[in-house]
Amino acid sequence: MSTVVREQHGLRTGTMAQALNLALRDAMHADKTVHVLGEDVGALGGVFRITDGLTAEFGSDRCLDTPLAEAGILGTAVGMAMYGLRPVVEMQFDAFAYPAMEQLFSHVAKMRNRTAGKLPLPITVRIPYGGGIGGVEHHSDASEAYYAHTPGLHVVTPGTVADAYGLLREAIASDDPVVFLEPKRLYWGKAEWDPAAAVAPIGKAVLRRPGTSAVLVTYGPSLPVCLEAAEAAKAEGWDLAVLDLRSLVPFDEATACEVVRSLGRAVVVHEAAGFGGAGAEIAARLTEKCFHHLAAPVLRVTGFDIPYPPPMLEHHHLPGVDRILDAVARLQWEE
Amino acid sequence: MTVLDHRNQPAEADTVPGWRPGATAPRTDPAPLLPDAEPHRVLGTPAADAADPELLRELYRRLVAGRRYNQQATTLTKQGRLAVYPASTGQEGCQVAAALALRPQDWLFPSYRDTLAVVARGVDPLQALTLLRGDAHTGYDPRATRTAPLCTPLATQVPHAVGLAHAARLAGDDTVALALLGDGGTSEGDFHEGLNFAAVLHAPVVFLVQNNGYAISVPLTRQSAAPTLAHKAVGYGMPGRLVDGNDALAVHQVLTEAVERARSGGGPTLVEALTYRIEAHTNADDATRYRQAEEVEAWQQHDPVRLLEDALRGRGLLDEQLVAGAAEQAEQLAARMRAEFHADPEPDPMSLFAHVYAEPTQQLREQADRLAAELAAEAEVQGR
Ligand SMILES: Cc1ncc(C[n+]2csc(CCOP(=O)(O)OP(=O)(O)O)c2C)c(N)n1
């Protein structure tokens, strides 16, 4: 990926990992205050190679291999941001971001508020997240609800290659902290995309597939699963829409409500545990706002309420096409 | 060349270990990093005679005002005017001397007990109290005053100071960051992570631990088994200094040296100041449950204000004018605190939504509208 040359921008075929790398590279070219830091982000290019070549191109001050300490990484980024830099922090894996939670919750999310707007923190925290790659324990958590529950953070997650590039550029340019959740099982999926083409901004949901029967509301790693389920549902005579939220905070209530009102049936899909999960919030909101348009309760298809299972069992945990289609069948709602 | 090439060694030094089988090169010698064997002291020693009289007077005026500030703030808690106040009575010497070791371009990263250091930085004494009064999280502009918000979670400000110092150095500025924390805070992970980052990044930052003997009720012996807290520096690869925290001149000297060392590219320093918390942890704490009166009395005999007075008197500098002037300034400050804290603050409820994000989300706008409507309805009822 270090061979990617910026000037070759134009329609291209590439993976999400490559798109993220290009987004970092372009952001660092565009703005000298953008600094990348994290564990192994230098010579190795990160364990997923998202930062590949950045140190070679921009130097070890701009792409910094740090000591192994997540609170230290994020806390140092806070001070850097206070002095005018735009740090982009890489957390190596989802569950290894937990040591940094205090910095995230107590300072990153609150500094603008604590200082009455005087110290906004333009920090992007990139976290490879979610399962489906056969990782052993602590490598597959889906923790979006923790972040989304914390006022002061933006929480975004791309489900497509084009969005990975576009959303990361926006996250880095944002004057507020953004938790940027990278669905690691989508890292290596290829697509044709154009970096120059604008994508919808942070906070805007996108209808990935129109439909007439019901809508699957989803984001990040579950997007391809929902698209696959919608395809399979055709055989059952169902024409499913798929709405990609892209951003949990801000939550695009207007678009979600519009789709749900027009169809009257919705299933929220994510792989994180269901209890207290993002889906609970979304389903509650859609019910409150669209009650009179609903022909059935808003249902949820989520992972089980269990610690992330060992890799040989994860396929039982992760919502798949069948589980989604079961829920769709229940939407006909005859008690 | 990057700022990380600070060891003046060939580039490959970064990529090879310091020792390998068969190597004859010496291991790193920890001796230069070891802290002072005894706490550094100046007041009461011949060295005090060389001190700048104006600095001594300035320290004295600020210590007297700081003592009065602590008393008045404690009284305000009893009157219910402050939600809580962690007094720094007995620690005025460290706080004032620390802030005075900084130049305007430097940054201070205080914790909740460090209001006097914040005031000595030039922050309005009443604005330094909004957090503890409860009307705002931070009453001052951190950027304008180069003073981070008073930090409540323990030690989390330590990596912030490191990051800011690192960024300043990258920018080519000669800014130094000073982080203040207590002895209990040195057990937190963020303290260790921050020190390690500082040493590895060679950041221009100074850490001042005010070891006042207790973390709420827990004595130092239950907090750390290290010979001194300054010894912790050695393992990270930075020098540790030990100083009598009630000797304001000694603290000022040690910190000035550490700050200059950082400013001139020498890297971070950890300073432990030995001091004592004369009052309870806060007004809500009962210190008699965990410490003896004799211990407090012993420290009262070693009071920072008295040590300074004795030194000034010894050099014939403690004249009527200085004493009266300092007392007058302190009383004026206390009177202002009483006057301005007499009224109930009226923070604007709508400010709740003002600084959550650069642009409020749709949900926040709706919630703000709801609160505005509630307030309007309330006002209407009261108007009738
Ligand atoms: C992370 C965290 N844990 C617990 C507390 C509650 N707490 C407030 S002050 C304190 C003791 C701190 O002692 P020390 O660091 O010695 O500072 P001192 O109060 O003596 O100045 C504790 C436990 C806190 N503020 N932050």
From TrEMBL, chain A:
Keyword vocabulary terms for this entry: Oxidoreductase, Pyruvate
Record field: transmembrane: none
GO function terms (MF aspect): branched-chain 2-oxo acid dehydrogenase activity; magnesium ion binding
Cofactor(s) listed: thiamine diphosphate
EC code: 1.2.4.4
Any Gene Ontology biological process: response to nutrient
Domain of life from the UniProt record: Bacteria
Sequence ranges assigned to domain Transketolase-like pyrimidine-binding in this UniProt record: 14-189
The UniProt record lists the keyword GTP-binding: no
Entry-linked InterPro entries: THDP-binding, Transketo_C/PFOR_II, Transketolase-like_Pyr-bd, Transketolase_C
Xref: Gene3D superfamilies: 3.40.50.920, 3.40.50.970
Catalytic EC class: oxidoreductase
Protein's name in the database: 3-methyl-2-oxobutanoate dehydrogenase (2-methylpropanoyl-transferring)
UniProtKB/TrEMBL annotation, chain B:
Record's keyword terms, sorted: Oxidoreductase, Pyruvate, Thiamine pyrophosphate
Residue segments, region Disordered: 1-35
Domain of life (superkingdom): Bacteria
CDD domains: TPP_E1_PDC_ADC_BCADC
GO function terms (MF aspect): magnesium ion binding; oxidoreductase activity, acting on the aldehyde or oxo group of donors, disulfide as acceptor
Pfam family, one: E1_dh
One of the protein's GO biological processes: branched-chain amino acid catabolic process
Cofactor(s) needed by this chain: thiamine diphosphate
Residue stretches making up the Dehydrogenase E1 component domain: 65-334
SUPFAM superfamilies membership: Thiamin diphosphate-binding fold (THDP-binding)
Residues passing through the membrane, by range: none
Protein's name in the database: Pyruvate dehydrogenase E1 component alpha subunit
